[in-house]
Structures are given as C-alpha cells and as structure tokens.
Amino acid sequence: MGLHARMDCQPDCSTYAAVRPVAIGLLDCYGKCGSMNRAEECFNNMPSPDIICWNSLLGGYSSLGDSTQVFSLVKKIQKAGLNIDAITFISIRTACSHAGLVEEGKHYFDSMTGLGIRKSVEHYNCIVDILGRANRLEEALVVVNSIPVGADAVTWRILLGSCRKWGNVEIGKVTFEALVQAVGTKEDASAYVLMSDLYGSMSSIDKFL
Q: In terms of CATH architecture, what is 7-119?
C-alpha cells in the first residue's frame, strides 16, 4: 500500500498534522493528487502553520489552476502576519497562467522588487508563460531578454511552445536559434520538434488561403 493510500486510511488527519515535517509532506502529497479537502483538513489541524506550510497548501490549489482559492489564501497569509516569499510568488503566477490572468500575474511579478524578493529564472519563466499563453509574444521576448543572469533552455522552450501555439514564425525563429545555443553541444530533439510543428501549422494554414 502506498503512502497516500495509507494516509487516507487514517480517519483523523491530526494523527500526522502535529508532526510538522510529516504534515508538510502530507500537504504536498494531497496537493499533487488534487485531494484538496484532505489537504485543508490536514492544514487546519497544524499548530501555528508557518509560510512553508501555507506555501504547500497554496501549491496544491495553484497546480489545479484554482486562482480564486490561491488569491484567497494569499490574503489569509498576509492577515496572519506572515510575509509571502519567492515560493509563494511562483504559486501565484502559476495560477495566473492557468487562469489567463495576465495583468494580475504582471502585477505580482512587478511587486516582488518592492518587497525585496529576488526574482529567479523560474519567476521569469512563469511570467513568460503567462504572456505566451495570451499571445503577447513580443512582450514575452522582452521579458526573456531582460533576465539578469540570462535565459535558460527552459525559458526558450516555453516561448517556442507559445510561438508554435500561435503560429508566430518570426519570433519562433529567434527563439529556436537561442534555444539551440542554450543547450550547446547537447542534442535537444524537442526544439526541432517544436519548430517543425510551427512550420507545419503554417503550411496547413497556407493551404486554406
């Protein structure tokens, strides 16, 4: 019997919730399985949850794209007197991306500087994904080029995937070349597949014109 199944056999989440490391593991487990009722039950039995515990619960709702619950939890975190951190912002922008909340995602991204939170490449990747899903590819490319430490292969794959989705060959070419350069001597079949699909989609469109 797996860990998740054994936990579900327990009628009372308080059995584990009092042990913080186990409780956090439970929150992650339930969140990844989409069992948010169980996650909430576990969280509510935790004594004095800190920001790590809140982030674990937040991550579950974020992965489900439940932006309403994510924003509600962020308000509760602040009301509890805790400071949201870099992990919190990743969950916020992931939810914004799934829900298509572009302006909200940009707002939270921009607010990080004022809160003294350092933006990692992962944070930039989130906002690139938000813009890419909304077909704001020019803006996404500007964000990519503004990353202080430089974009990584994941960043370029996200943008190239958006170019394929929207059929933007011009930005797609730039992105493909940057991705090939980013991976260096390593073979990256996904880059060629994405670019091939992009050209393929444009050929299909041309047939109907």
A: Alpha Horseshoe (1.25)
